[in-house]
Amino acid sequence: METNPGDALGRRTAPALEALRGDEVFTGVSGPANPVTVLDFWQYAMPDLRTNTTRGLLAEFLVHRALGAPVRNAEWESFDILTGDGLRVEVKASAYVQAWDQRGPSAIRFARLRGRTWTASGSVAVRPTFNADVYVFALHTAADHAVYDPLDVSQWSFYVVPAPHIAALAQDSVGLATLNGLVGTPVPFEALAARVRSADPRRAGELDEAAPESVPAARVGAKVPGEKA
Q: Which residues have C-beta within 8 Å of that of residue 43, sequence separation ≥ 6?
């Protein structure tokens, strides 16, 4: 029986998989007349784009699309998005309206700015660190359930901050007042890519310019599995 190839340390290589389409059928769940598909699972797993976990993924998806990143990062990476030229981007999401009943809009605060990293050899960083070049704080601005539309990108605003400015705060969360002090007015979706590029600290010499061969090295430090960033 064939097994995944491993290295000298006994680590098995995860095979590359094609992206699912949604029409793939589960085997053994039901008969041919009533197939259960991957789309059925998606509808079960994330039927509401307002929930905290799914909204975070949605914000990451929007930033990924805006930047034209070539591939989706693995969930255990130490940052959320890697652009074609090696820019590491971390995305944080928040909203005034939640998926539950509320007395009023939620206070906006973006947490988990730092994260512990691990490597494929299994070593884990002792201390959490700032692991991106640019932070994007995505805020869904709808203030009432009646107007909340997760599919309308005009309801999102994006605060874009170079990582050195975030690291200088030396804290694990940040609120809107601090973000307004750092960058002023947020940008809409259509201006997001340009703002991220202008915030790239490598352009100002604050970080070493990423050479093509250095891009894979950015993937060495990854989020500890099970630790949400």
A: none
Q: Which residue's entry shows tokens 């600290």?
A: 201
The alpha carbon of 37 is separated from its chain's Cα centroid by a whole number of angstroms, namely 26
Q: Which residues contact 11 (CB under 8 A, 6 or more apart)?
A: 120, 121
Q: Which two tokens stand for residue 194?
A: 């340009």
DSSP 150-188: TT-GGGEEEEEEEHHHHHHH--S-EEHHHHHHHH-S-B-
Average pLDDT, consecutive stretches of 10 residues, N- to C-terminus, the chain (229 residues): 56 74 89 89 89 91 95 83 95 92 89 79 74 96 91 96 94 94 94 96 60 36 45
Which amino acid is present at 33?
Answer: A
Q: Distances from the Cα of 167 to the Cαs of 107, 120, 128, in angstroms?
A: 23, 26, 12
Predicted TM-score (pTM) of this structure: 0.79
Number of C-beta neighbours around residue 76 at 10 A:
14
Q: How far is CA 98 from CA 48, 101, 128, in A?
A: 10, 8, 28
